[in-house]
Amino acid sequence: AQSVTQLDSQVPVFEEAPVELRCNYSSSVSVYLFWYVQYPNQGLQLLLKYLSGSTLVKGINGFEAEFNKSQTSFHLRKPSVHISDTAEYFCAVEGAQKLVFGQGTRLTINP
Amino acid sequence: DTGVSQNPRHKITKRGQNVTFRCDPISEHNRLYWYRQTLGQGPEFLTYFQNEAQLEKSRLLSDRFSAERPKGSFSTLEIQRTEQGDSAMYLCASSRTSGGSYEQYFGPGTRLTVT
Questions:
Q1: What is the mean pLDDT of each run of 10 residues along chain B (115 residues)?
Q2: What are phi and psi of A94, to 5 degrees?
């Protein structure tokens, strides 16, 4: 069975500072990993995905993530955050045709 | 590509009433998923369809819940005899089966409040 653990429930950072949101996964099959963002009262928007190939994946809005098989991690990073990045971020792993999500990390940007 | 749409966006109902939600997927997508998201949690899988066939149901989907996708296009999710514990955001997603992983596109969700 697949599972996802997001290690931080909340991450406060200052505007223009770098940020890393941590995600660890468990999967017994081929690993497909995703990061989604959810703005208040909205659905989920795909930020980036890892299917195969290069372990460094670039996504929208300047985000990137690195797949680390030995550490079973898929951490999300951004070198310089903006106020508009304030949102909930979800890491997910695909298993048996469905997504299994972590509990989410709330990213708060302080001016 | 107009995206996944869901109606209504908000629903307030009294305990014991029945409610029905609708999801319209992206037109060329043959898979449709329902997820439930409670406050402060990530979405949890409920069920999914490939075309009109319902291929899997989560144990979270009690016998008060039923989902249909009669013509392989839009889907409805009905909750009978609602309970306060059913209060949540109900998310619909769609994807197409074209090798490898099936990227899912999400709708805006229907927020259900049971009073």
A1: 90 98 94 94 94 91 93 94 96 83 87 97
A2: -90, 135
